[in-house]
Amino acid sequence: DIIMTQSPDSLAVSLGERATINCKSSQSVFTSSNNQNCLAWYQQKPGQPPNLLIYWASTRESGVPDRFSGSGSGTDFTLTISSLQAEDVAVYYCQQYFGFPVTFGGGTKVEIK
Amino acid sequence: QVQLQESGPGLVKPSQTLSLTCTVSGDSFSSGNYQWSWIRQPAGKGLEWIGRMYASGRTDYNPSLKSRVTILVDTSKNQLSLKVTSVTAADTAVYYCARDFGPSPNNWFDPWGQGTLVTVSS
After folding, report:
1. What average pLDDT does the structure give for chain B?
2. pLDDT tens, residue by residue, A76-93
3. B10 vs A21, A37, B19, B82, B120, CA distance in Å?
4. CB atoms B96 and A49 under 8 Å
5. Residue A51: its chain B contacts at CB < 8 A?
6. Best CA proximity match to B49, nearest among B5, B13, B7, B82
7. pLDDT > 70 fraction of chain A, expressed in percent and rounded
8. Nearest by CB: A49 against B103, B105, B112
9. Which of A40, A88, B43, B113 is most buried by its number of CB atoms within 10 A?
10. For testing the chain A interface, which of B4, B34, B36, B47 should be mutated: the one with the most A CBs within 10 Å?
11. pLDDT beyond 90 at B32
């Protein structure tokens, strides 16, 4: 299985400041079939299911605010919230869909400082 | 708009079989456009993909659970089902169904059902 490691486990950011979450895969998730990275990001608020934010490492899902952005390639990826809002308090997960089975990171909890 | 709703017993005794149903509205299994997955999340922990059903009836299972898991579909009711045999406390989790989306066979998931908590306890 491809192991997904997220860091930090949690972070506290002031409103309006930048939040950066890292995700590292144990092997490359780049696919030459379409020159894309098979990496998705989800947001999970308390008591709710995960909600898709980004796929192909940097493609924002329809309706997701543009303060959320994804970057990276190969084995190292980043989710950035450019200006943290109160409604962004949640746990964020990365997921690889290159290898079988698909696997998720352990999650990063984002709180307001 | 696709909606998924999980249902089933919230409490299962150790060594018994966990059985859940996911009812899909707004899309049809028989359309063949997507795969449909089960994913679980133990309390306070991360997410584990359990398995998926293709429109063809083919299934894929996580090797870590394959010997105990069965996923079935009832196209007449537009329902996906999950059975996990010989459960232990380690199977206590919120169970989600979700639509696979993406390049196939491995995909991201969107949307997800609200999830149902299953506790394994005597």
Report:
1. 93
2. 999 999 999 999 999 999
3. 34, 38, 10, 14, 8
4. yes
5. 112
6. B82
7. 100
8. B112
9. A40
10. B47
11. no
User: Residue B67: what pLDDT?
Assistant: 95
Site from A35, A102, A108, A109 to mutate, B interface, most B CB atoms within 10 angstroms:
A102
CB atoms within 10 A of CB B75: 12
Instruction: Give which of B102, B96, B98, B99 is closest to B115, Cα–Cα.
Output: B96
Local confidence band at B31 (pLDDT 50, 70, 90 cut-offs): confident
Our CA-based measurement puts residue B14 at a distance from the nearest CA of chain A, in whole angstroms, of 26
Q: What is the pLDDT of residue A22?
A: 98
Structure confidence at residue B105 (pLDDT) = 76
Residues of A in contact with B106 (CB under 8 A): 38, 97-100, 102
Task: Name which of A31, A33, A101 is nearest B62 (Cβ-Cβ).
Answer: A101
- For residue A75, the Cα-to-chain-centroid distance in whole angstroms is 13
Nearest by CB to A52, from B60, B62, B108: name it.
Answer: B108
Residue B33 and residue B42: Cα distance in Å, rounded? 30
**Ramachandran category for residue A66: left, alpha or beta (phi over 0 → left; psi -120 to 50 → alpha):** alpha
Of the CA atoms within 13 Å of residue B50, those in its CB half-sphere come to 25
